[in-house]
UniProtKB/TrEMBL annotation:
Residues 22-34, 47-67 have a biased composition (Polar residues). Residues 113-130, 189-255 have a biased composition (Basic and acidic residues). The lineage of its organism: Bacteria, Bacillati, Actinomycetota, Actinomycetes, Pseudonocardiales. Residues 1-15 have a biased composition (Acidic residues). This is D-alanyl-D-alanine carboxypeptidase/D-alanyl-D-alanine-endopeptidase.
Length: 739
């Protein structure tokens, strides 16, 4: 059974008495079985609101009626003569009685009220029944008359505990009719009646909603609306729909749609004095357009960019940072380095002597010999024991490099080959005199060096190898030079001179002064055999005319000369001396190399009087040469013109010299009082026990090129005293200006 209805209070009945006395308008249809309907005259004739047309108030049948044609106690039925009826007698209650048709009679359907000029007419729909109904004007209200500040009586419905529990169990969101009113345009809708039915079916009235698009709603459930009334008049209330009742709404243009049966919980939808909003409206708020959101976001992005721009302008220089300025005038460049020409003021011997007197008198230099020459004029500017033979140490490499440039083609390369051995699967490595082959690519101290992996790859491509041999017949004589000390091998100064080795015999390929191996050929051949997949290598001879299986070549002679001068590599120097010997028809040995160097220099007009050396690297302490021989070779290389054929060949010798404070063996020198010579002095160093030498060239402050050679025999500390003293001596020539 449904819950008992909630009847109005005495205050509500009192207000309805006064409202019932007002005039009403009766609308009749010319039909015997059609009842009439009455409306308050004031409500009908009142002008419609400018905000929303007048709506009719829905009145529903009450489930509390006792039967057909009967009314609930205290509730009058229209036309019955009961109090509150059309006779105008005292009202006994609100119109909540049974007003629907009796069983077997046609159902009453709503009518449509249409205002026309100053009159109002009620247009019945075809095949519809009406019921005479007295609607007090106090019960009729319009949405636009509802206040929005005061909470109405409808906001506080009186519900039983069961209804409250069922209302809380609904998951749908409660929406208010006044909220939906602000979203929908004005419209008119007819009255509805809800007779009792057993079969759940629903029909909705036809709505006229211009300029409105209603979104599809999925949930038919409606929530209790929240309304506001201007005054606490008697409200009309309806009991929630139960399982047994079924309401029928006026026929719409579209066919009736089957609706799922109501849920088990009760539906508490109190009437607010207005026609109920369609369920599809109350189920969910219409989707709002996202255009305003996008517009707001766009404005925020623009504002952020503007703020960032203002911050950047203020933070990084203000308006000056964004000003467009004309390009600056070209800078007046005054290069510090000037072209060295013969037109520069020529220094005088007196001026050079005066400049060198102090530095040359340093006691740390011990016995000092040397000379200074102007290559442009050939004038000797300073001389001190320049013809006296002295130990040159590594400065002797200047003679070997000059002989190589004068006798060998600058583009010549040293070739290492692998040929087919006398037995199947046997290969022979033929040493070609290149000590710079790199065993670890990218780790060599020799720029442009060939790689062992290249050679191995070429041989592998020709077939399997089962045996490896190496041929060292290119060189002759002893592997170590006269007076060489074996400790120099472990010290990294030298390795046995053989025509096949890796990285100059170094154990650590990247360490210029690191320890070297005492058997460089065997070590290199074993690495080759390992990489090609054969057992350890052995010494052997290559068959005459054997097929070449692989070949690699070194960097050019000119580059090799440059490299040996920069890092003062003794092994590479001795290999080049042997190549000079081979080129000149001499034995490729220490003695043959020395003879070849002397022959080439003498042939090119250099006076070797007093020169006595046994190797090409200057490692032997028995080597003796005069300082003048070194300055003579450098003077030829530094002549301002190329009229002399020797000058053109010897020019690379100057660029091969290390730069003071910048490269090679002079990279860490020229500090302190010798700093003025940094970058201006280019010279070859020489160091042995008790011997230090420096020979090269310098450009003075007047732009004149001067060549020099200094050899010192001193037992003083070479690192802290002797070498710095030699550097100051050469730097003095830089600041000479001795014209």
């Amino acid at each position: 059974m449904p819950d008992d209805p909630q009847w109005p209070t005495e205050d509500d009945d009192a207000e309805s008495v006064a409202a019932a006395s007002q005039s009403t308008v009766q609308v009749n249809r010319p039909s015997v079985d059609q009842p009439t309907m009455r409306f308050p005259l004031a409500a009908v004739l009142s002008a419609p609101s400018t905000q929303e047309p007048l709506r009719s108030s829905p009145v529903r049948s009450s489930p509390n009626a006792t039967g057909p044609g009967q009314a609930a106690p205290g509730v009058p039925t229209a036309g019955s003569g009961a109090p509150g009826g059309p006779s105008g007698e005292a009202a006994g209650g609100k119109s909540h009685g049974a007003i629907g048709p009796e069983v077997g009679q046609p159902r009453a359907v709503p009518v449509r009220v249409e205002p026309k000029n100053d009159r109002t007419r009620v247009v019945p729909r075809p095949e519809q029944k009406t019921t005479e109904l007295s609607v007090p004007p106090g019960k009729t209200a319009r949405v636009d008359q509802l206040p929005h500040l005061e909470q109405s009586w409808f906001d506080k419905p009186v519900k039983s505990d069961r209804q409250q529990h069922q209302q809380q169990s609904r998951p749908e969101q409660t929406r208010r009719v006044d909220q939906l009113q602000g979203q929908a345009p004005p419209r008119q809708e007819p009255q509805r009646q809800e007779p009792q039915r057993q079969e759940p079916q629903r029909q909705e009235p036809q709505r006229q909603e211009p300029q409105r698009q209603e979104p599809q709603r999925q949930e038919p459930e409606r929530q209790e609306p929240e309304r506001h009334e201007p005054q606490r008049h008697e409200p009309q209330r309806h009991e929630p729909q139960r399982h047994e009742p079924q309401r029928q709404e006026p026929q719409r243009a579209e066919p009736a749609r089957p609706v799922p049966p109501p849920r088990q919980e009760s539906r508490d939808l109190p009437v607010t004095g207005y026609e109920e909003e369609p369920e599809d409206r109350l189920a969910e708020e219409p989707r709002k357009s996202r255009k305003p959101l996008f517009a707001v976001l766009s404005l925020l992005v623009v504002a952020a960019l503007a703020g960032a721009t203002i911050y950047a302008v203020d933070e990084f220089g203000g308006t000056k940072a964004i000003e467009t300025r004309p390009p600056a005038a070209p800078a007046n460049v005054q290069p510090l380095v000037k072209a060295a020409t013969a037109g520069a003021p020529a220094p005088t011997p007196a001026g050079v002597k005066q400049a060198l007197t102090g530095p040359a008198g340093n006691s740390a230099l011990g016995t000092l010999t040397g000379s200074v020459i102007d290559p442009a004029s050939g004038t000797a500017l300073w001389q001190q024991g320049d013809t006296t033979p002295a130990t040159p140490a590594s400065s002797l490499k200047i003679l070997t490099a000059a002989a190589a440039l004068l006798s060998l083609e600058k583009t010549d390369r040293l070739s290492t080959k692998v040929v087919q051995g006398a037995e199947p699967g046997t290969v022979v490595i033929v040493g070609g005199g290149d000590p710079t082959i790199s065993g670890a690519p990218g780790r060599s101290v020799y720029p442009g060096a060939a790689t062992l992996d290249d050679l191995v790859g070429q041989v592998k491509a020709k077939g399997a190898v089962t045996k490896v041999q190496f041929d060292l017949s290119r060189y002759a004589g002893e592997a170590l030079g006269p007076q060489w000390e074996s400790v120099d091998i472990a010290g990294g100064s030298v390795a046995p001179i053989v025509p096949f080795m890796l990285d100059g015999g170094r154990i650590d390929q990247t360490n210029v002064n690191g320890a070297r191996t005492g058997s460089p050929a065997q070590a290199a051949a074993d690495v080759f055999a390992q990489r090609i997949g054969a057992p350890g290598a052995t010494a052997g001879a290559a068959p005459a005319g054997a097929q070449v299986l692989g070949e690699i070549k070194s960097a050019s002679i000119e580059q090799l000369v440059d490299n040996m001068m920069q890092i003062s590599d003794n092994v590479l120097t001795e290999a080049i001396a042997r190549e000079i010997a081979i080129k000149t028809g001499n034995e490729p040995s220490f003695a043959g190399g020395v003879k070849a160097v002397r022959d080439v220099l003498s042939k090119n007009g250099f006076d070797l009087t007093g020169a006595n050396f046994v190797d090409g690297s200057g490692l032997s302490a028995t080597n003796k040469i005069p300082a003048k021989l070194l300055t003579d070779v450098l003077t030829t290389a530094a002549k301002p013109t190329l009229d002399d054929a020797r000058t053109a060949k010897l020019r690379p010798l100057l660029t091969a010299l290390p730069v003071a404070g910048g490269s090679g063996t002079l990279a860490g020198r020229y500090g302190g009082t010798a700093a003025p010579g940094k970058g201006w002095v280019r010279a070859k160093t020489g160091t042995l026990t008790g011997v230090n030498a420096l020979a090269g060239m310098v450009v003075d402050v007047d732009g004149r090129v001067l060549v020099f050679s200094f050899m010192s025999a001193s037992n003083r500390n070479p690192e802290t005293e002797v070498r710095p003293a030699l550097d100051v001596l050469a730097a003095a020539l830089r600041g000479c200006g001795c014209s």
